[in-house]
């Protein structure tokens, strides 16, 4: 699968889109470069939310690997987003080109850094990494798969994944989440939430016995994406995803004008619930408009 990013990440194709090497190479040849900013944190969150889900071809039993290719320093918090992925058992390889920040690459990448961080001076030099990176990736997949397959039986997805996410009691700054726990209780839950149009992901870690959470201090009139992921000792279950919008702040109503004179007027209105101050703006109507 592949996504490009600037200030708005874009999925080029999902994990399930192609099934042969030739198809992938053809897709690469037809790829159009996306210029722009460098919001790496937003891109990593996009990959987690959009590309590493069952609908996009991700399988519960498969190892999850992300290869980040960047030529600049991130303009948002890439470390926080990367930590969210790594805490979910997703391994990150970071490849820098030209003006990439090596310190940031080392923060974002998984351990051991000598295997997961690469840096080259220009794009043509990326070809020199292909052989080594391929060997490292394949070796890591085999190592992790053999370790986890010894402990986890196959086809236990339904036993490891919560269901029925409900979002209720939505206000302008809060919402309540509830879900049905999986048959096998997790060690803990990781709840990640952020505005769908971009923003720093926030997360809450809960004990595996808990199946509800109140989210507070949200922004009004904003669509939020929510992800609830069960964490086990050696595996991560499928996460629940939800989308909902907080309510707009209440507005003043019934504006009335009275006590008119040649240079003054009195305004009155019904109060807006929760408002602590009002800003009143006044300007002369344009020529020809109604007085």
TrEMBL record:
Keyword Repeat: no
InterPro entries the record matches: ECM_Assembly_Org, FN3_dom, FN3_sf, Ig-like_fold, VWF_A, vWFA_dom_sf
Alphabetized UniProt keyword annotations: Extracellular matrix, Secreted
Domain Fibronectin type-III as annotated: residue spans: 161-250
Domain VWFA, chain residue ranges per copy: 1-133
UniProt-listed CDD domains: FN3
One Pfam family from the record: fn3
Subcellular location: Secreted, Extracellular space, Extracellular matrix
Protein name as it appears in the record: COKA1 protein
Source species: Pedionomus torquatus
Lineage: Eukaryota, Metazoa, Chordata, Craniata, Vertebrata
Gene it is expressed from: Col20a1
């Amino acid at each position: 699968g592949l996504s490009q990013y600037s200030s708005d990440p874009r999925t080029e194709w999902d994990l399930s889109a192609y099934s042969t090497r030739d198809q992938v190479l053809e897709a690469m040849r037809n790829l159009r470069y996306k210029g722009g900013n460098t919001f790496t944190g937003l891109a990593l969150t996009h990959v987690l939310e959009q590309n590493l889900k069952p609908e996009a071809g991700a399988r519960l039993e498969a190892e999850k690997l992300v290869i980040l290719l960047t030529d600049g320093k991130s303009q948002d918090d890439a470390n926080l987003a990367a930590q969210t992925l790594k805490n979910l058992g997703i391994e990150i390889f970071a490849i820098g080109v030209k003006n990439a920040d090596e310190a940031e690459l080392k923060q974002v990448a998984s351990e051991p850094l000598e295997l997961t961080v690469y840096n080259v001076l220009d794009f043509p030099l990326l070809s020199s990494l292909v052989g080594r990176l391929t060997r490292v990736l394949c070796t890591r997949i085999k190592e992790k798969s053999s370790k986890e397959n010894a402990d986890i039986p196959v086809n236990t997805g339904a036993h490891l994944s919560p269901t029925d996410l409900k979002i209720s009691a939505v206000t302008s700054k809060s919402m309540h989440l509830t879900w049905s726990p999986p048959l096998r209780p997790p060690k803990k839950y990781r709840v990640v939430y952020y505005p769908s149009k971009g923003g720093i992901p926030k997360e809450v870690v809960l004990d595996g016995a808990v199946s509800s959470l109140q989210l507070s201090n949200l922004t009004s009139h904003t669509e939020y994406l929510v992800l609830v992921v069960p964490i086990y000792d050696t595996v991560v279950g499928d996460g629940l995803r939800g989308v909902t919008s907080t309510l707009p702040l209440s507005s003043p109503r019934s504006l009335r004008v009275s006590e008119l004179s040649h240079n003054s007027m009195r305004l009155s209105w019904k109060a807006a619930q929760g408002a602590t101050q009002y800003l009143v703006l006044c300007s002369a109507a344009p020529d020809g408009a109604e007085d």
